Amino acid sequence: MTEGKIVKQISNDYTVNVNNKLYVCKARGKFRNMGITPLVGDNALIDCNAKYIIEIKKRKNELIRPSIANVDQAVIVMSNKIPEFSLDLLDKLICIIEYNNIEPIIYVSKTDLLDEIEKNNLFKILDYYKKIGYRVYADLSIKEVFKDKVTVFVGQSGAGKSTLLNNLDSTLELLTGDVSYALGRGKHTTRHVELLEVLGGLIADTPGFSKISFIGMTKGDIRDNFIEFNNYREYCKYKDCMHNLEDDCMIKKEINNNILKSRYDNYIKFISEVER
Ligand SMILES: Nc1nc2c(ncn2[C@@H]2O[C@H](COP(=O)(O)OP(=O)(O)OP(=O)(O)O)[C@@H](O)[C@H]2O)c(=O)[nH]1
Ligand SMILES: [Mg+2]
Ligand SMILES: [Zn+2]
């Protein structure tokens, strides 16, 4: 038995990397009985001869859609145009990624399609995200973040995830797709999750996902993962303030001052989504 990492899954075939040798394995039936599905990113014990996965090591975290385990950081690829930039989606992704103890990194693609005024407006908003502690990139200087990390690329279909990966390492030659202009959204050019060795780390390109949701999260979880709110909540009148209908709420007082209005509006939208 040897230990390796699952780097790719296509239906029931799991490719496991053991000291840079690849083995295509099946999962033992016992996993199904135990309710475990092996995931890309799993550290696993395998039988190299019989080509079976025998054991899955305890996970640090796991994401669903894209299904992947043991992720350190997530690059949120946000397109400016086609598909349109969405602060709503950005805040949703940040919140879910934070909740999973994964570090979000923001990458804005297609800035070449913007004029100077549009660019200025965009960077003003992005400055807010920097101020509250996130790393934000709009060019290939993002290369510095990948070494020794497991990174997942997330973002809408057509946002430019595979294009960015190809630009980070031109030998990858990943398929990229034309965005369906009529719909303003992509058509899932990338079809499976796979960990690729890039710039001294592992990066998972994923199919753009539209079904991301707050599964398993409570309203309190959403509140706690709007990280900048935590700097002010001790000044709210109520200790467990939801920053919604309560009086004397410091978060509400800080809107348009230290808190970006769209962040607050999205927060209110998300907690009512979870309530339903
Ligand atoms: N102008 C411009 N076009 C870009 C840029 N990045 C990506 N594109 C185009 O956007 C389209 C979609 O890019 P992909 O890299 O396939 O998008 P994806 O996020 O991998 O999409 P899925 O695999 O479907 O999830 C392609 O036609 C790219 O050429 C960019 O920085 N500027
Ligand atoms: Mg892709
Ligand atoms: Zn409050």
Strand-helix topology:
Blueprint: E1 2-10, E2 13-18, E3 21-27, H1 29-34, E4 43-47, E5 52-56, E6 62-63, E7 68-69, E8 73-79, H2 87-99, E9 103-109, H3 116-131, E10 135-137, E11 150-154, H4 161-168, E12 194-198, E13 201-205, H5 219-224, H6 250-254, H7 261-275
Parallel strand pairs: 3-5, 8-9, 8-11, 9-10, 11-13
Antiparallel strand pairs: 1-2, 1-4, 2-3, 4-5, 6-7, 12-13
The structure holds guanosine-5'-triphosphate, magnesium ion and zinc ion.
In short:
This protein is an alpha/beta fold and 276 residues long. The chain is globular and about 65 Å long. Helices cover 25% and strands 25% of the residues.
Task: Compute the average pLDDT.
Answer: 90
Cα-based radius of gyration, to the nearest Å: 20 Å
Which second-level CATH architecture of the largest domain applies? 3-Layer(aba) Sandwich
Strand content: 15-25%
pLDDT < 50 stretches: 180-186
What does the main sheet amount to? 6 strands, mixed
User: What is the distance, rounded to the nearest whole angstrom, between the alpha carbons of the first and last residues?
Assistant: 48 Å
Shape: globular
Number of helical segments with 4 or more residues: 7
Kindly name the structural category: alpha/beta
